[in-house]
């Protein structure tokens, strides 16, 4: 479905539409939990998901995922929110050299100053010093669930200051179309609001008048 799309070409447009609009346009619970925030200000991601599941306090699957990743991938990791630094400068340098565009993790990252200097976009539910074991291979490429979102390989990740949306590949074409229409509609709203109209009228929020 998404193979007819060149995400590189769409990158600027998707970032301008933003994670919130794309999530809304998807019509599904495609948002990740709001605790997952950019590790440094200005981090933004558009790319294809490579789902990873990691045991608490073990980052072996992240090393395996870097080996397996294709250029344009974003690692989306369910680490159960455990307070460990699963990812840092070493893995970011390794990932960047393979064309990985970012990391989204329900769990911790560290070395965040270095991640920012590298321009490696990371979104995490926490920042943590504590290191990890490298014993449990977890899974790489199998579907995962984070919050209410299910994530499959090849889904489209859009992450910005508002949060992270992961759009299933099968609905991406429709989602993009609806998102464009929504953005256009809101632009028209903005003009009318600047002219003094109220959202109560614009959005039809008033109760019907009593007879
Ligand atoms: O070493 C680790 O396991 C995580 C980390 O800090 C890095 O990748 O630099
Ligand atoms: Mg480190």
Automatic annotation (TrEMBL):
Pfam families in the record: RraA-like (PF03737)
CC cofactor: a divalent metal cation
Known catalytic reactions: 4-hydroxy-4-methyl-2-oxoglutarate = 2 pyruvate; oxaloacetate + H(+) = pyruvate + CO2
SUPFAM superfamilies: RraA-like
InterPro entries: RraA/RraA-like, RraA/RraA-like_sf
The protein's enzyme class: lyase
Gene3D superfamilies registered for this protein in UniProt: Ribonuclease E inhibitor RraA/RraA-like
EC number in record: 4.1.1.112, 4.1.3.17
Stated family: Belongs to the class II aldolase/RraA-like family.
PANTHER family: 4-HYDROXY-4-METHYL-2-OXOGLUTARATE ALDOLASE 3-RELATED, BLR3842 PROTEIN
Described function: Catalyzes the aldol cleavage of 4-hydroxy-4-methyl-2-oxoglutarate (HMG) into 2 molecules of pyruvate. Also contains a secondary oxaloacetate (OAA) decarboxylase activity due to the common pyruvate enolate transition state formed following C-C bond cleavage in the retro-aldol and decarboxylation reactions.
Assembly and binders: Homotrimer.
Full protein name: Putative 4-hydroxy-4-methyl-2-oxoglutarate aldolase
Organism: Herbiconiux daphne
């Amino acid at each position: 479905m998404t193979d007819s799309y060149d995400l590189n070409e769409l990158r600027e447009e998707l970032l301008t539409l933003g994670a919130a609009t794309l999530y809304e346009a998807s019509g599904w619970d495609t948002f990740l939990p709001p605790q997952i925030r950019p590790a440094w200000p200005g981090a933004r991601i558009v790319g294809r998901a490579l789902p990873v599941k990691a045991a608490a306090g073990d980052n072996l699957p992240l090393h395996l995922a870097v080996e397996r990743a294709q250029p344009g991938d974003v690692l989306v990791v369910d680490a159960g929110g455990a307070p460990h630094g699963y990812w840092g400068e070493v893995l970011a340098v390794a990932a960047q050299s393979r064309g990985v565009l970012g990391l989204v993790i329900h769990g911790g990252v560290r070395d965040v100053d270095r991640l920012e200097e590298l321009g490696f976009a990371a979104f995490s539910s926490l920042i943590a010093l504590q290191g990890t074991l490298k014993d449990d291979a977890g899974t790489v490429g199998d579907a995962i669930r984070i919050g209410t979102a299910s994530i499959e390989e090849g889904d489209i990740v859009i992450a910005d200051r508002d949060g992270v949306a992961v759009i299933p590949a099968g609905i991406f074409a429709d989602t993009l179309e609806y998102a464009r229409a929504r953005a256009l509609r809101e632009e028209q709203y903005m003009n009318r609001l600047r002219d003094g109209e109220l959202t109560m009228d614009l959005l039809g929020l008033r109760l019907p008048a009593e007879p």
